[in-house]
Design a protein that fits this description.
Length: 302
């Protein structure tokens, strides 16, 4: 990944929005942004809050600590579906995820969990499904939002959801389906979160799915540092790139950009159970909590 760099900051949005899925602990290439700088750059273009997702045990621990540290951040914790089959003691790992999910109110999400048939073969898929069901149970019992990773596994995801029933709030992260799959998810109560992939030239099916999604079920995310929107595909993504995705989304839907931004804010509140901080702000960007652990100032490579 040598030579991979960050795109320039886009024009700010006319109203504040949230990056509903990011990985500030993951570094791509030779460059990285300190967490406070990444949050400040996002706030400068109107992305005033983020949902930090930890998708393995070290990442989940980091997400919980970071959410305690940074005012305008909430956390999600889980074993990624590709990580679950690799666990030497899956039960112990799931027990720790449950403890982290209940650590404090700013852990709003159990996820990303789900199914991934792109990198996990048949042998690991039964373990994936078991882990997915356990995460759903944790989300229900702790009243957390479930965030689902679905890669090449649409039918399998819905089969698990239908077999155990979804929690009250659930999100299809980086929605990757066509309009028919969107309708199936929406009919079951899901929120659909669109990433930079909706801007890709070969993703008309995603734009078609976005076009039929009710405004009150739409979320936006980066999945940073991955999935940087066009025309910067391949560069390192960051939360400040949300405006590039939002502008394409507004164009696809034939909506005013400010209207779409203002619709995203209440959607985020409904999807994640409230504001991203107890003292929500839209002004000067993030601040660190006094006495917070210094480890959150460092990103980790993996």
């Amino acid at each position: 990944m040598r030579g991979v760099s960050f795109p320039p900051l886009p024009e700010p949005l006319p109203a504040a929005v949230v990056d509903n899925h990011t990985h500030l602990d993951i570094v791509r290439g030779d460059e990285s942004l300190p967490v406070e700088e990444a949050l400040a750059q996002a706030a400068a273009v109107g992305v005033t809050r983020v949902v930090q997702i930890g998708c393995d045990l070290p990442g989940a621990r980091w997400a919980v600590e970071a959410a305690e540290t940074y005012e305008n951040m909430v956390a999600g914790v889980a074993l990624h579906p590709n990580d679950a089959p690799r666990q030497p003691d899956l039960e112990a790992a799931l027990d720790e995820i449950e403890k982290l999910a209940g650590a404090h109110d700013k852990v709003r999400v159990v996820g990303e969990t789900g199914m991934d048939f792109f990198r996990t073969d048949e042998e690991g898929r039964e373990t994936q499904a078991y882990s997915f069901r356990r995460h759903i149970d944790i989300a229900k019992r702790l009243d957390k939002t479930l965030m689902i990773h679905d890669r090449d596994a649409h039918d399998a995801v819905l089969e698990v959801i239908d077999s155990v029933g979804p929690p009250e709030r659930w999100v299809m992260h980086c929605f990757s389906g066509d309009p028919e799959f969107a309708r199936q998810c929406l009919d079951r109560g899901a929120y659909l979160s669109f990433a930079g992939t909706v801007t890709f030239k070969n993703a008309q099916y995603l734009r078609d799915a976005l076009a039929i999604t009710p405004q009150d079920r739409i979320l936006v995310e980066t999945d940073a540092p991955f999935l940087t929107p066009h025309p910067h595909r391949g560069a390192v993504n960051s939360s400040y790139m949300i405006p590039a995705t939002m502008r394409v989304m507004a164009e696809v839907r034939g909506e005013d950009l400010e209207v779409l931004c203002n619709g995203e804010t209440p959607n985020r509140g409904r999807a994640f159970g409230g504001s991203c901080s107890s003292q929500a702000r839209t002004g000067d960007g993030p601040s660190a909590t006094a006495g917070a652990p210094s480890r959150c100032d460092q990103v980790r490579r993996r």
